[in-house]
Amino acid sequence: VEEVTDRTKEPTRVRDTQTGCTAGSTDTDHCANSKCDVTIGDKTYCSQCATGYVPINGKCVAFSDSSVTTTAGCTKNNGDPVDESSTTCGKCTGNNYFLFMGGCYSQAKAPGNKVCTTASGGRCTTCKTASGLFQNPAASPTLGSECILCSDATGANGVTGVENCNTCTAPGQAGPATCDTCQEGYYEDGDACTKCHTDCATCSESGASVCTSCPEGKYLKTNQCIDSTTTQCDQGTYADKRTRTCKACSEIAGCTACAYNDNLGGPVCSTCSGSNNLVKTAIDGSTTCVAAAQCAVASQPGTHFLNKDNNGCILCSNADDTTPGNQGVANCKTCTKSTDANTNPTCSACLDGYYISSGSCAKCAANCATCTSADMSTCSKCLPGYFLKTGSTNECVPCGDVDKGGREGCAACSNDLTFKCADCRANYRKQQNGGASDDYTCTKTCEDETACGGTAGACRAIVVDGDGSMKYYCSSCGQSNYVPIDGKCVDSSSANGNQCSNGACQSCAANYFLYMGGCYNTQTTPGSLMCSKATTAGVCDTPNANSRYFLVPGAKVTDQSVLGCGNPLGTTTGTGDTAKAYVGIQGCKTCTAPSEASNGAMAAAKCTACDEGTALTGSGYGCVTCDIAGCSACRADNMCEACSDGYRLEGDTCVRTGGNLSTGAIAGISVAAVVVVGGLVGFLCWWFICRGKA
C-alpha cells in the first residue's frame, strides 16, 4: 500500500465559527477545527473537513458531489470511494489533479496552479517554488508531499517547513527549510518565526515599539500603534484610515492642518502657509494650497474667485456666503469676479445638467447634461447612465431600459450610431458583446442592486425560483449599518425586529426564518419559495409544498432551519463537539429530509427526483449523468450499477443478452445448438465417405 501522510490525527469536528476558510469568504465552509491551515499566496485553505466532506481545491465539498467522485477522483488511501465518514482524500485519480495537504487540487486552475506546474498520476511532478513552498528533496516522496509548504512544520520523509514561515529555501535530503520571510504577524527570530506583540499587525522584532503596521482601528505613530479614539496624531498630521498610519498634512504641498475625508479617501486641508496660503477646494471636494493668482485671474473666467478681502479662494458654485462680493452662483462651473469688490461674480458656464438663464443656472430637462433651455428638444448630451434617443422629441433614456432601446443591467452607454454598453451595474457580470472591445452584455449575478455592498459583502444565498431557476441573494452586507432582510441589504433601522449586526443576521423575528446569513419573511418572496410557516420565531417548521427544500432536523433559532434539496454545501446546527452537518444533493430537484445526525457527523437528504438531464442513483444520494443504453441506474456519471431487462452488467456498462431470455435459458440454447451442429456434421461425413465407398 502506498504511504500517505496522515493529517487526521486530531479529532474532527465542525469549526465553532463558520465564517469561511478562504480569506474574504463568508461561505459556511465545513472545515474541521484548527484545520484551516493551508496558506497558498494570500489565501488560506482547508486540509481536513468535517465528516462527510473532503477538500477539493482547498474547499470542503460533500463526499457525494460529482466534483469529488468524478472530476477530482478523490478516493480513500486504498482506492475505495470516499463516504459519509471521510474527511480527507487519500488519492486523486481525476485528470490533471494531484494530492496535496489532504485534498485534491487541479493543476489547471487556482489555487492548484500556484502550487504545481505539472501533474501526473495523482502526483505533482514539478512544484511552483515561488509560491511559498519547495520541492520535497527525498528520493521517493510520500504521496501528497511532493510539494511542501514553507509553513508546514509536519512535512514528510524527514523534510519540513518552518511554522508560520512565508517564503523559504529548501533543505538538503532531510531537515527543516531555511525561512527567508515570515507570515504577516510574525518576525524572523533565528531559525523560527515568532509572533509579534499583540499591539502590532506586523513588526520587525519583539516589543510594542517596533510595529510596522497596526490592527483595524489603530494607527501607526513612530512605530507604535495608537488608539485613534483616545490618542490624536501629532499636529500637522492626520489619521489615514486606509493605511492606519499617522501621515503628514504636507503631502498636500503647503498644508499645515488637515483631516481625513471618508468620501475622498484622503486628507482635506484646512490651513495653508507660506506664499501659497489659500485653500482651494475643487468640485470633488479635494483641496490644494494656492496663491491668489492661482485662485482667480482678474477679469478671466475660472472655477474659483477671490473673496473681497483677497484671503479666500471660493468655488464658483459656492453660494453659502451671502456677503456681497463673496457669494458664488449655485450650480455654476466657471465664473468671473467683478472689478467691484462688493459685486458677486458673473457665471459664464454651468455644471452638467444646468444652463445659464438670467445670470443663474437653471436645470435642464430630466437627465439632460447639456442644453440651452428647459425644453428637451435643445438637449445635446445626457447625464452619465443615460443615452440620447432622438426622434420627434429628444429623450434621455436609462442605459438599462430595455423597452426603449437600452440593455438590461447596463450602467454606462452611448448611442452615437448604434447602442453600446460600456459598463454594467454592480449586481451584473460584464462580458464582451461578440468581438466588440467597447460593447458589453450584462448578466445578473445578484438580486440586490448594490451587489450587497460590493466586495466587502457577499451574494451567496441561493434560492430556487418557482420555475426551477436559481437566483442569488445577500448572505452578508458590506455597507456599514446594513443587514440582509429578504435577500436585500437594508438599513439596520428597517430590520423589522430581526436580530442582525456586522452585516449578517443571528436570529429572526416572528414569521421570519434564518437562511444563509439573512432573515426571510414566510409571507413574501423569496422567503415563501422556501418556507410557508415559521411558528417559532426564526425557525421554519413547514417547507414550501414544492418539495425543493427540506427542514433541517433539530434546528434552533440561531441555526439555519431550511435547506435546498440541491445544495451540497449544506449547513450546520450547534457548535463545537455537538455540531451536526446537513447537506443536499447536487442536481437534486425534490427530496425528503434526513434523520437527525449524531454529534460531529453529517446527514444528507434523500433525493426523490433530479434536475432534467440527470438521473437518480440507486441509493437516492446522487444525481448523475446516465446515458448508457439499457442502464436503469448509475452509481456515478455514466457508470452503471443496474441494467434493464434484456441487458446484463459488464463492468460499468450494459450489454444485450439476446432478447429477454435468462442466462440459464441462453446457456441451454447454446448447448442444444452445439448438439444439432455436431449431428449434422456427422451425417454429412457418413453420406460422402461411406456412401462413396458403396
Automatic annotation (TrEMBL):
Gene3D superfamilies recorded: Hormone Receptor, Insulin-like Growth Factor Receptor 1, Chain A, domain 2 (2.10.220.10)
Each TNFR-Cys repeat, start to end: 181-233
Keywords: Membrane, Transmembrane, Transmembrane helix
Keyword Membrane set for record: yes
InterPro entries xref list: EGF (IPR000742), Furin_repeat (IPR006212), Giardia_VSA (IPR052798), Giardia_VSP (IPR005127), Growth_fac_rcpt_cys_sf (IPR009030), TNFR/NGFR_Cys_rich_reg (IPR001368)
Pfam families: VSP
SUPFAM superfamilies associated with the record: Growth factor receptor domain (SSF57184)
TM segment ranges: 665-689
Amino acid composition bias (Basic and acidic residues), ranges on this chain: 1-16
PANTHER family to which the protein is assigned, alphabetical: CABRIOLET.-RELATED, EGF-LIKE DOMAIN-CONTAINING PROTEIN
Protein name: Variant-specific surface protein
UniProt organism field: Giardia intestinalis (Giardia lamblia)
